[in-house]
Amino acid sequence: MDYGAALDHLETLINHEVKPRAGRVAGLSLESVQRLTAAMGDPQRCYRVIHVTGTNGKGSTVRVTARLLQEMGLRVGAYTSPHLVAPTERISVDATPIDGETFGAAIGDVARFTDHLQMRATWFETVTAAALQHFADIAVDVAVVEVGMLGRFDATNVVEAQVATITNVALDHTDGVGDWRLAVAREKAGIIKPGSTVVCGETDPSTRDVFRAEPHAAMFERGRDFATERERLAVGGWLADLRTPYGSHSDVHVSLHGRHQLDNVSLAVATAEAFFEAQLSDEVIGEALANVRVPGRFEIARREPLVVLDGAHNPDGARAAANTLSEDFAPSGRRFLVVGMQSGRDVAGVLQGLEADRADRVLCCTAPTTRGIPATEVAAAAASIGASAEAIDDVGAALDRALELADVDDAVTVTGSFTVIGAAKMALGPSGP
Asked: Is 182 exposed, middle or buried (0-12, 13-18, 19+ CB in 10 A)?
């Protein structure tokens, strides 16, 4: 297949990112993807794997971990989700995304196996299998793999993780009914294998016990075994001291925006040290953090006015985005929000986390997906918490309206869904409108 044919093929497949069933665990199974990868020769067994799950911070943790391993001289595959503009973003080697031609060929190979097996894999199963095969084909030393949703029944869980990393447990991909926190933790704990070293960033004692209960080889916990200390704002990011399972690192400069990224960085360093079973040098950490980029996570797209793209889509992520804008940038002018969300999200909770009632104007759009909540509904939710809201269906038009209203000292945050971020990036173009 060429790239276009691969995209056409993927469009014919069931896509649970568009029509999710995470949280509805009855009937979920790994049987389909296990059957597929077995027919392909289990490519995921050709290299070591670090598997990352959690509610927030997975993408940042994967990218920082991959950069650390790369600085140690390894050839590193990374599999992340969702993508912002093109699915090729999900599969990278040494921080370089797969090219369209190779992606098309990989999807075509998987399609031939599913045809031979007379099975119908989902969109995510197909792309996951293609990623795992690609990493085997080019002989990576290690793959850092991000879970799509939850963990136990996620297609990525065909891997046997040497290190299983958990960022945290928060409200997302769940109806929030009953003891949802423990239920979500149990699903995320499913990536832990008996031979895995667990690196656990979750701090709630009850949910952390869920991870402790899974059979594992060793476990490092935030607070007890690793932590950030002396956090302070710096030019272009943050400075902190890191205490890790194998030592400590002073005055580490993190060139990412947001205090919360320090938690992701400390988790990534602990993960890399757990992988090597040794302390990393300050030089390796410094080089890795100087070169890491996390698209769509408080990404600065433009200045004067400041335009920030952040994929926050749950209340915790929204609070982190609002805090980052205030703490890292403290804009002297007005604040505008461009917000679009998908069904199944806590719309009011996200808007409150974003401090929408304090924004000068909230431009509400419809996320460009079949799950997109109509702009009028998002605007009604914003108005209900006291925000000045305007409904504009198209993401690009909503962004244009925000830029029309904003002066050079103002700040525009585009957020609510990664699909909105992707559309905004396309609207802005390589050098902005």
From this structure: middle
Rounded to 5 degrees, φ, ψ at 285 are -65, -45
Which residue's structure tokens are 């045809």? 115
Section 400-417 average pLDDT: 98
- Do 240 and 361 belong together in one domain? no
Tally of domains in the chain: 2
| 433 in a structural domain | no
Helix (H) or strand (E) holding 180: helix 180-188
Calpha distance 111→300 (Å, rounded) = 38
CATH number assigned to the domain comprising residue 334:
3.90.190.20
For the beta sheet containing 227-234, the strands, ordered from the edge strand earlier in sequence to the opposite edge, are 227-234, 237-244, 247-254
**What is the Cα–Cα distance from 339 to 348, expressed in whole angstroms?**
12
Same domain, 272 and 341: no
Label residue 179 by pLDDT band (50, 70, 90).
confident
Please check whether residues 239 and 309 belong to one and the same domain.
no
Q: How many whole angstroms from its chain centre is CA 137?
A: 25
Indicate whether this model's pTM tops 0.90: yes
Confidence of residue 100 (pLDDT cuts 50, 70, 90): very high
Domain that holds residue 370: 299-428
**Residue 86, exposed/middle/buried by CB under 10 A (0-12, 13-18, 19+)?**
middle
| 280 SS3 class | coil
pLDDT tens readout for residues 342-395: 998 999 999 999 999 999 999 999 999 999 999 999 999 999 999 999 999 999
